[in-house]
Amino acid sequence: MAFIRTMLGDIAPEKLGFTYSHEHIVCRPQHWVDRNADDLLLDDPAKSQQEVALFRDAGGRSLVDATAVDYGRDPAAVREISRATGVQIVGTAGFNKGFLWDARMPGKTCTFEQWIESTSVDDLARFVVDEVEHGMNGTDVRGGQVKFGTGYNSISPLEIKTIRAVCRAHLETGAPIHSHTEAGTMALEQMQYLREEGIDMRNVSFGHMDRNPDPWMHRKLAETGAYLCFDGIAKVKYNPESVRIRCILDLVRAGHQKQILVSGDTARKSYYRSYTYAVGLPYIISTWVPRLIEEANEAGIDGQKLVEDIFINNPRECFTFKKG
Predict the structure, then answer these.
(1) pLDDT in tens, 196-247
(2) Distances (CA, A) of 107 to 30, 112, 132, 282
(3) Which residues are recorded as modified (N6-carboxylysine) (predicted)?
């Protein structure tokens, strides 16, 4: 039976509804705690709950919380936010990226780097499988996707190790795979290890594609069947919205409308309305979606159908558990 795993339990895929595919709700990354980087700490669950309620009131139904264990995940707090707001939230098992691993692991004396280095790939895979099948951070909140990540224009040996572990956890559980690409780099290079582990790319989503607005690279990824997540909406400091929309419409023209995901990756206080009066989670629905519809229609593309695919149909397919 096909299902999507949320923090409140498994649901039928058709119940997912309008979905942001990469967000952060509550996170206290030890790497940033050690550096007193307050903007990178979403450490007030009450404010996060207010923000998720704003998303719901704007018309949102589901969120994917892409916060992994090395990014200060708090699944118990996020589950309570889901319960209080009625918004369905998919949690994330696995890892983020190597430069975070100098920090101490929760409840342990070693760092993430020391633990990953001293643990076999198969035992790391078992850790991820347990997060999907039993629960994360000592809770019974189960992960709904498995994640790995790599650095900027680089893939370290320990990152390769976590890629392999996450692939093996996917093959055992059927949980969808999500890839962190630092500034949109190294996605094509990551595929070498995915292929070596026997992964069907139709079960993988690559994040931060709008940080590297390269239409050729996007097409090459899409030709494998993978999903491309444009999750920097509203971050004009990286690229204007015109660049993101142009990349999305280029993929549509190339026949890849069914492989596009969109979100905001709101991982800073300064991105949240509830913390700082920023545009926050409602922005995509209230402001960006109407613009996408208008620009798509002007380009001869059915904007309303495009939005339906990006936010409803594609997430429904992407986040469904599939084995093999």
Answers:
(1) 999 999 999 999 999 999 999 999 999 999 999 999 999 999 999 999 999 9
(2) 12, 11, 20, 35
(3) 147
Q: Is 134 annotated as a binding residue?
A: no
185 within 8 A of 153, measured Cβ to Cβ: yes
Q: What DSSP state is assigned to residue 63? A: E
Q: Which tokens belong to 255?
A: 């026949």
178 annotated as ligand-binding = no
The answer for residues whose C-beta is within 8 angstroms of residue 31's C-beta and 6 or more apart is: 70, 99, 100, 101, 102, 103
The answer to the question of whether 24 is labelled as a binding residue is yes
Q: Which strand (E) or helix (H) includes residue 149? A: strand 145-150
Give the 3-state secondary structure of residue 245. Answer: helix
Contact 324, 171 (CB under 8 A): yes
The continuous run of DSSP H or E covering 5 comes out as: strand 4-6
Instruction: Report whether 22 belongs to an annotated binding site.
Output: yes
CATH, range 19-318: 3.20.20.140
List strand residue ranges (DSSP E) for 207-268, in order: 227-230, 260-262
The domain segmentation of the chain, as residue ranges, is 19-318
